[in-house]
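Field reference: sequence -> structure
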Amino acid sequence: MKLKNYWRFLAVFLFLLVSLLILEQTKTLARKDNWPVMLNASRRMEVAMEAVREEKLNRCYKISPIDDPNQTGMIGEPYTEITTTLGNLEAKRSTANPNTAAMVVDMLTQCGAEKGDTVAVNLSSSFPCLNLAVLCALDAMELKGIVINSVGASTYGANLPDFTYLDMEHFLVERQYLSNHSTFFSLGGQDDIGKEMPEETKKAIVSRLSGFGYKFLYYTDLDENIAVRQSIYEAGAEPACFINAGGNLMSFGGGTEMVSAANGIILPGKSPVKGHGLIPLFLNRGVPVIHLLNMKGLLPAYGLPFDPSPIPAAGEGGVYDTWQYHLPLAVGLLLTGLVLLIWAAKKYPHRKIPL
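Structure field:
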């Protein structure tokens, strides 16, 4: 068939192409349906971080103007007795943004979590702000978290031996800034038992945190450690989601998958997930996972800045917005396109339709 006989179909194609361009040009930003809950979580986190900052100053800890230029009080030291690995300073500073709690609410909503659901949570202490973001999101959504924390932290995390992440958390719970909180803890670090930490430091931390009511987990065998955590998470209702914040050993059982794993929301697939640890375990059980680690890629993907200065206030950022298309216009263009396609097709016998 000669090219001139195709002009009607070319016209339809051009119409559809122009329609797509029109829809893109007329789309608008609108608040997400769950933005009030997202804002609630962000405001909770904002208040919690300020309370931790004040307590840190009350304990005579200095806030570095170089490492923590926004003076959040949420940035740790380059090295202490409970420092486990090297961490990224800019990533730590980036999470000291109250709107990261809104991001976690958005992720939980996408995973289908609803009021009253149970959420399994694995927290390291490398990103104390991420931990607060998770707990504030759970509180705002009225979810029940089953939370396990590891004390060891990478550089610039919650690595002060006398003011660990769980010291911060306990302080906030005591003053009713948090409802959800950790129940169990391990030392973290090498083999999750803090092999690289001084014995006296470990004893002091375990004694203090146990006195707060946290239950201590100590298992030298990795498989047993993972199995115990699994039993803790399975003791209640089936979790609607599993959240892993930071690079805790238990997330992938010490495997290299942690570095290359997908970031943010990971949905269960049809094929079994290879690997050893809590993330593969939950995915293979059909439970969606929220993996919070690579902040440089994750935060901008949710409309939040990386290493911002100054820190945005609660309610600021693209995380609250979504693009919406003009629905009546889209329907009108679609119907017009269908009419034109039928018109073009009728000009040819069925066997000659150039499809």
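Note: DSSP finds twelve helices and eleven strands in the chain.
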